[in-house]
Amino acid sequence: WDMLMSLALIYTATLTPFETSFIPPVIGPAAWMDAWFLANRCLDGVFLVDMGLQFFVAYQTGNAFGEGTWVQKHEEIIWHYLTTWFCLDLGTVVLPMTFDIWTASSAFDEQALIEAPNTVTNTVNGAEKVGVLRVLRALRFVKLVRLVRASRLYARWRARITLSSATMTYAGCAFTLIFSSHLF
Fold this sequence. Notes:
4% strand, mainly alpha, single chain
């Protein structure tokens, strides 16, 4: 499951900025046939399933001396998830998904606004509506907050992989450099 989540996070990190910036939105019922829209709904499904699984994943508590114990009591796991990551996870899945599904089921036509008759009132109203649509479309960048979830995966993988601290630091710096270059 961690591998699938890693692939979903890599997809989100690399393709969401590209899609939001350069791919024109498909509005209305045609969105349900768009590959980008369907891929995003599949990703939303993966992240929703992961949210459900987080209610069953034990977590580790630690003290100032580096000693830790695993909490496996189900009620404590649920309370811990609800008070830590749940709101962030819910917001990064539900907000973009709600906007995308709303635009897919709406009869709102961006192209009709752009090609509206060139009167002063229609131009102003059309520009305002297109501007609102673009601002709402920028809400897709909320999905990038999902990358914070990678810290949980990283902590689990680091517990399994035995590499020196220097190697881990080097790999982390190289990844940060490559990812930052990609975003720029």
